[in-house]
Design brief:
single chain; alpha/beta; D-Maltodextrin-Binding Protein, domain 2; 15 strands; 42% helix
Length: 457
Amino acid sequence: MIRIKKVKIRINNGLFISIKIQEENMKRAIAVALTLGMVTGAMAVNVSADYEAGDYSGVSITMLNTKSEIEDYLEEAAATWGELTGASLEVYTISDSGSPSQEIAARYAANNAPTLIMGDPQDVAAICEEYAVDLSDQAWAANGGSQYGITSGDVVYSFPFCIEGRGLIYNKTAIEETLGEEWDPSSVTNMDDLADLLQRLVDAGMEAPVALNMEDWSLAGHYLTQVYEEQDGTLDTTLAFLDSLYAGEVDLMENERFNALMDTFDLLKEYNINADDPLAADYATNCADLAEGEVAFYFNGNWCWAEISSYLEDGTEIGIMPVVQNETSENENVNTYICGSATKQVMIDKECNDETQQAAAKDFLNWLVESEEGQSVLIDECSIVPAFSTIDKPVTNMLAQSVQDYTKAGMLEDAPTSYPGDHWQTMGATMQKYLAGEIDREGLADEIEAYWAALEQ
């Protein structure tokens, strides 16, 4: 193994140059740089943490990325890691409208699976025992991998890429400026409080204080799944509830959590800035409206920081709060917890990639966790909350900070890994009909029940 450090040196014009050197030659390299006059005035040298880089010269691997908002950052990370190891890592990204499960299935059908596969938990769980490399011996597996990754027995099959939480994103600054008074998100303790606040904002001049997305993944993958995950706040009950849905034994119209969440959804629809044509809502516009204070609340998660932050003015304060509800007798935590989990999992393929490619893929994942540069990719650039206890680097944006606060306080409703691969698309289409007023709540419940009952468990 070659112990390599990467030195970043600032030169006169403010640009940086990077030099890769073996550890024992570091002092000599910096001395040479100084002698040549490359460093003048205030010198800034940034040396990464120790990284055991393998030599993978000539090895080519690929990665499927299903988080389109971090595409550029992953490509830059691949290039940086490739410089250290001699390997080539090609990242290809599917769009937000694409289905990870369908893309993964198509690649295996063509016998052309990528080396690193990022999928939703259910996508990886469905194929890991047949196609994924056992990652149990990786150092990060004992520091969050076994807790948040996809496992079977004692075997860890995936790298939990990020912890993500979802709820109502709020613009505290816009709320306070509109109302002319200080506002504390903890003052909204149930749906009635939220309804009162929304009407006060309208009366004070904010025409439509809510933004709702129209994307299937947002409506079904993020909002509807709260019905499953918040039954009583325990994973065992969530799994039992899904079993009952499979068996056709659930009457959603009699279910407290379904009705409470749909009551809140109806309230959000009422104040939706896109109410005139809700299925024409534009994701980027929703992000901009929240950031700029056109709306006060936006159902989404910390992954949308990249879009929101590009519109934020200095001093604007935003965060995430729970989707508050009125009926809480079966789960008193729904108004203080948010739903969150490791929402993207990365597995290494063993079917279409040889052992050298698998080793290179492990090296890339280790680089993300063990090096300062890799950690910076996750936290500073991708703006995510990492799953690993060994990463002490603080998160750097307000939405990630909210999720990290809920995580550290143990206030995340856990999520299963057993959702069907077509859930967000099929149920997303149903939720879109409900959002557009094409079906009523009973029709929504009927379609959800029929979907689950038709599945093979």
